């Protein structure tokens, strides 16, 4: 079945006005009294410009640890959740729908790699199983440090309950749905992954944790529309022998749809947080920006170390150059096997490409809705152009300059002047105006 971009879509009882969404992107909006206003500043333009759905990026279910970047938003208490009402109300007033993504970083947490957090905090990282060999080897170089706490069975239940409690709070303050950060090497992916998960209890079954999280959310937050990413680890480095294959991800997707998830976002990735998730160029300007040098030194330990991390990014960029629609085939395979909506993101840049992903162009549809991530940093009101003009394309140049400053807690935004200049010209020409 195919659909036009401006056709409404029902996801678990939530009606979206069209099939274009803003993919979850870290906002680094913190969790102080103004967090909701800061999030509104970032997310409302997308809603105002007509996005059918706006995902708020990874938001932590616990009050301590688990952050994958500095300054992340937490939703571990009713008080912090209440601060987020400002963004849900503002998005609704703008005519949009907003879904929060829940997360815990586990072995990807900040305390493993960020020098300042390592020094300041004596915090363990939650782990599904003992730290894998390659990460222990990397720790010997001094770039990573682990003080892992392997979750007991009872603690896994408690963690899942925290996802349920966070979902309840999210519903209470007006979010229209809950998304799970099950890719990007967060703890949910670590449960799913044969590389990380070497448990011997019931959670040795990779999909079991997502089933339990589903049950906890349903028990506490009722029939809130429930989304999850579904990861592969196909793009892991060659020296890592085990990982989620495409077949594994398709099987997991089928299982989760049958279990009660309302929508799936299949994404190719790796066993590690690398650039296979955000394919693009080496972020030359992002690394060179003078205002972030002291932040990089603080994060990585010294100027030399920051340079070595930059060199590793250069290698990653060669392995993962800019690409178009890199999750389309995976989404298409999943969509052929499940009855719930499939959402596709990753390197989507042109309106024609969006229409083809929705099945309007010959090939079978890959998705029921299509999302863009980084292009929203470049053009917060991008939907206005994409919805109005069948020939339009996003300005984002896949240069990834926006990514590196986030290691210092800087907000996510486009940091490439030529792209920003083009946006200014479009603004002046009224390209983002809507009737
Ligand atoms: C800076 C940055 C932050 C991201 N944060 C999240 C996140 O919080 N949760 C998530 O599931 N994906 C996250 N992603 C992945 C995006 O949702 C998206 O899948 C990816 O950027 C590919 O889409 P794009 O090519 O349109 O940017 C992030 C990507 C970037 C670049
Ligand atoms: S810096 Fe701007 S142009 Fe470059 S990837 Fe980020 S949003 Fe796109």
UniProtKB/TrEMBL annotation:
InterPro entries: Aldolase_TIM, NADH_flavin_oxidoreductase, OxRdtase_FMN_N. Keywords: Flavoprotein, Oxidoreductase. One of its GO terms (molecular function) is oxidoreductase activity. Residues 7-221 form the NADH:flavin oxidoreductase/NADH oxidase N-terminal domain. Gene3D superfamilies: Aldolase class I (3.20.20.70). This is NADH:flavin oxidoreductase. It comes from Halomarina rubra.
